[in-house]
Design a protein that fits this description.
GO terms for molecular function: G protein-coupled receptor activity; olfactory receptor activity. It is a multi-pass membrane protein. The protein is mostly helical. The chain has 11 helices and 3 strands. The chain has a 3-stranded mixed sheet with strand order 2-1-3. The longest helix has about 35 residues.
């Protein structure tokens, strides 16, 4: 069967993570636990935001969407990576490879824009408190979320539209555990120099520029608070620390991978692990440990559970 574009190559071989059998078993168990933590932790935050009326605010609405997107982003790669670890032949069809790549960039682009939206939310809350509820109205929040998803899809399709037309005639080995545009372009049987530049401009410079823009926005917020509160930054740092931690964790691997999108080493696949497995697993922990509202919501949920069990015992 030929590829979607009439190429000779109908499947790709994922080289994945190398190591002894014992190492692969340990990695399988480790990533399985991480993925379980990603699913349970992030979906718990989504459930908590929906169930607790005290969390029905723009900040937590955006956090719930970030958690939901983290589940989707991890699910595009981690389950296959786990199943492939113990396989001798790791093969992915041409169609599945292209679909996986599109989902990675669509959800990765959406995550990037969600982090920008969350930074804007913190700016409005701290620097424009009197107008916050007007700026971040329910209609505005929904619009920002929809725009994030739409722009994420556009980001993915803008690269997919030309990669899908490349001829692939071999080799077909990808030195990673998932498909991605830079790796796929390297295997094309054509001069892809100009397309390498497009990927660098689209993903690399966009990611790097956004990262520094976010850092500048946090600096601006802290300077504004410092001027208003005579040097007391403790409250602002408490509010922003979780956001800044997540931004650094997410963007650092992306910059490493896409600013130089055609590496000669396999180091980028280990950076992928940070974005797809480690960061989504840490996000619920970061937002739970550093957020008093989330802690109180968990406490209220626990007390409600004890109360419901008591009521059932009494009525029984």
């Amino acid at each position: 069967m030929d590829g979607l574009n009439g190429s000779v190559v109908s499947e790709f071989v994922l080289l994945g993570l190398s190591g002894s059998w014992e190492t692969k078993v340990i990695l399988t168990l480790t990533f399985s636990l991480l993925y379980l933590g990603i699913i349970l932790g992030n979906l718990f935050i989504v459930f908590l935001v929906i169930a607790d009326s005290h969390l029905h605010s723009p900040m937590y609405f955006l956090l719930a969407n970030l958690s939901f997107n983290d589940v989707g982003l991890s699910s595009t790669t981690v389950p296959r990576m786990i199943s492939d670890l113990l396989k001798e032949h790791r093969v992915i069809s041409f169609q599945s490879c292209m679909i996986q790549t599109c989902f990675i960039h669509a959800m990765g682009g959406t995550e990037l824009l969600l982090l920008i939206t969350m930074a804007f939310d913190r700016y409005a809350a701290i620097c424009k408190p009197l107008h916050y509820l007007t700026i971040m109205s329910p209609k505005s929040c929904v619009l920002l979320i929809v725009m994030s998803w739409v722009m994420g899809v556009i980001h993915a399709m803008s690269q997919f539209s030309f990669v899908i037309n490349f001829p692939f005639c071999g080799p077909n080995e990808i030195d990673s555990f998932c498909c991605d545009f830079p790796r796929i372009i390297q295997l094309a049987c054509t001069d892809a120099t100009k397309f390498e530049f497009v990927v660098t401009a689209n993903s690399g410079l966009l990611t790097t520029g956004t990262f520094f823009l976010l850092l500048l926005s946090y600096v601006f917020i802290l300077v504004t608070v410092w001027k208003r509160s005579s040097g007391d930054l403790s409250k602002a740092l408490g509010t922003l620390s979780a956001h800044m931690t997540v931004v650094v964790l997410f963007f650092t691997p992306c910059i490493f991978i896409y600013l130089w999108p055609f590496p000669t080493s396999s180091a980028d696949k280990y950076m992928f692990i940070v974005d797809f497995a480690i960061t989504p697993a840490l996000n619920p922990v970061i937002y739970t440990l550093r957020n008093k509202d989330i802690k109180l919501a968990i406490q209220r949920l626990s007390e409600r559970g004890h109360h419901d069990r008591f009521c059932r015992l009494v009525y029984c």
